[in-house]
Structures are given as structure tokens and as C-alpha cells.
Specification:
9 strands; two-stranded antiparallel ribbon; 5-stranded antiparallel β-sheet; globular; about 10% helix; mainly beta
């Protein structure tokens, strides 16, 4: 399957904005990830797209996968993707070694 034009555009826009990204907390479907608002700080370090899946990698080994992402807002203050068919957030249990046994995920 071809990468959708929206996923390609989002990858290009993220990579162009790298110098301006400061990082921040994450929301999924309107709910903070990882506890209290802004309790965890995440910084994007890379991204790519394969098939219809956008993969965004973060500085502590976390990965965000978005299937058929739509309506991205990306600028020096905002990184928001308004819609996706499916979302998967992967991280290593914080404070533990980064091993497969300590890999966690949340998927909607």
C-alpha cells in the first residue's frame, strides 16, 4: 500500500520543524499520557512513514504510531494530529532498563 499524501506531508512538516520543537506532554483522545498534565516531557527525535503508518520516535525510546493520520497542526508552539484510524504509544517502563520485558504500550 502507498503512503497516503497526508502521512508524507506530516513527515516533511515534522522534519522541517525539528529545530523549533521544544517537546512537551502528550494527549491521546483528550487524555494526558503518563499521569498528570505535563508530568512527562517528550521530545521528538525522528519520524518516518511506512504504508499508512506514521511513526514518531522520541528521546527516551518511546514511539508513537498513527494509522492514516489526518489534519496535522505543526508549528513552533503546537504539534497536534487531530485524527487517526488507530494510535499506539510504546514506551519503556520509566526508571527500568530498556528491555523487551519493560516495554509497555497503549493502543486505541
Amino acid at each position: 500500500m502507498e503512503i497516503g499524501p497526508e502521512a508524507e506531508q506530516i513527515v516533511s512538516r515534522i522534519k522541517a520543524a525539528f529545530p523549533h520543537f521544544k517537546g512537551g506532554g502528550l494527549w491521546f483522545w483528550g487524555v494526558w499520557s503518563g499521569g498528570l498534565p505535563c508530568e512527562n516531557f517528550h521530545k521528538i527525535v525522528d519520524c518516518d512513514a511506512r504504508d499508512e503508518v506514521l511513526n514518531i520516535q522520541f528521546d527516551q525510546g518511546e514511539s508513537l504510531y498513527l494509522w492514516s493520520p489526518l489534519q496535522a497542526e505543526i508549528d513552533h508552539q503546537t504539534f497536534r494530529i487531530h485524527n487517526a484510524v488507530r494510535v499506539r504509544w510504546e514506551w519503556f517502563y520509566y526508571g527500568c532498563p530498556k528491555t523487551d520485558q519493560n516495554r509497555c504500550f497503549h493502543q486505541d
